[in-house]
């Protein structure tokens, strides 16, 4: 489930991450775009882009709509500004706990301005997958912007208990969380919404509109060209190899 808004250059890498998945089962990447001045296009049997003409009030509502549109019952969060290595789906399906109806590793790698760090521990909601039945049981995401990811995970914990996250070996890590160096915004960078102030969604909208007016961001019909800016598989392998050598020394 991939939400996107005004950053097709990052979406291209997220789509490429999906196309490189080694999982042999049936799968679909659902991209939900609610920037009315951009119509995103991509022709692939396993990628479906839904463009809507009106903006969702909150990211939580947008995530719920994306889940409702998804065709399958094992749901993966797939944020458009992060990188997922080719074994994400296959590894997650193998490790998925049908009793908990949830899987997420404790650890991920972080990429800032081209430099990897970690493994690190954080919420890393975008590395998670869960069953539709669990999602329905907690009634989906709260209708808020920043913090909707934490809120739903706390609801999951009420159902399946604490300790829901799983350990993962460094060589099995599949999620690369990106912060600095993407050339775009981070919703969480605007903080939580406060009464009487502009919401995170409004601030993001203003940021995107400024880019469109300045010509830094294209409007109209945009065909997505999936690609990675670099070989992230090689980047991670090299990083882990050097980290192992350093630990031995």
Comma- or semicolon-separated keywords:
Spore Coat Polysaccharide Biosynthesis Protein SpsA, Chain A, 7 helices, 19% strand, 4-stranded mixed sheet, 249 residues, 12 strands, alpha/beta, single chain, 3-stranded parallel sheet
Account of the protein in words:
- By secondary structure, this protein is of the alpha/beta class.
- It has a single domain, classed as Spore Coat Polysaccharide Biosynthesis Protein SpsA, Chain A (Alpha-Beta Complex).
- Helix content is 33%, strand content 19%.
- The chain has 7 helices and 12 strands.
- The strands form 4 sheets. The protein has a 4-stranded mixed β-sheet with strand order 6-11-8-9.
- α1 links the parallel β1 and β2.
- The longest helix is centred in the last third of the chain and has 17 residues.
- The mean pLDDT is 95.
Secondary-structure-based class equals alpha/beta
Record the strand order, biggest sheet: 6-11-8-9
Task: Give the SSE string.
Answer: EHEEEHEEHEEEEHHEHEH
Task: Please bin the fraction of helical residues.
Answer: 25-40%
What fold name stands as the CATH topology? Spore Coat Polysaccharide Biosynthesis Protein SpsA, Chain A
Total strands: the figure is 12
- Mean of residue pLDDT values: 95
Question: Approximately how much beta-strand content do the residues carry?
Answer: 15-25%
**Structural Rg:** 18 Å
- CATH class descriptor: Alpha Beta
In whole angstroms, how far apart are the ends? 42 Å
Number of domain units: 1
Main beta-sheet strand count, sense and barrel state: 4 strands, mixed
Q: Can you tell me the CATH architecture?
A: Alpha-Beta Complex
Low-pLDDT segments: none
């Amino acid at each position: 489930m991939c939400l996107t808004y005004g950053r097709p250059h990052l979406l291209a890498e997220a789509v490429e991450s999906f196309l490189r998945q080694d999982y042999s089962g049936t799968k679909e990447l659902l991209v939900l775009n609610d920037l009315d001045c951009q119509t995103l296009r991509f022709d692939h049997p396993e990628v479906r882009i839904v463009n809507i003409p009106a903006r969702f009030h909150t990211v939580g509502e947008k995530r719920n709509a994306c889940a409702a549109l998804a065709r399958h019952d094992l749901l993966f969060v797939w944020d458009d500004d992060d990188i997922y290595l080719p074994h994400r789906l296959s590894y997650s399906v193998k490790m998925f706990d049908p009793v908990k109806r949830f899987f997420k590793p404790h650890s991920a790698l972080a990429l800032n301005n081209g430099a990897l760090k970690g493994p690190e521990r954080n919420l890393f909601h975008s590395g998670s997958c869960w069953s539709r039945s669990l999602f329905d049981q907690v009634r989906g995401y709260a209708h808020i912007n920043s913090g909707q990811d934490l809120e739903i995970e706390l609801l999951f914990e009420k159902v399946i208990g604490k300790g829901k996250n799983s350990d993962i070996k460094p060589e099995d890590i599949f999620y690369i969380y990106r912060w600095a160096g993407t050339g775009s915004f981070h919703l969480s960078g605007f903080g939580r919404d406060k009464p009487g102030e502009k919401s995170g969604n409004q601030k993001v909208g203003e940021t995107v509109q400024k880019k469109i007016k300045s010509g830094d961001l294209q409007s109209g019909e945009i065909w997505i060209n999936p690609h990675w800016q670099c070989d992230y598989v090689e980047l991670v392998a090299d990083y882990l190899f050097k980290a192992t050598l350093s630990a031995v020394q």
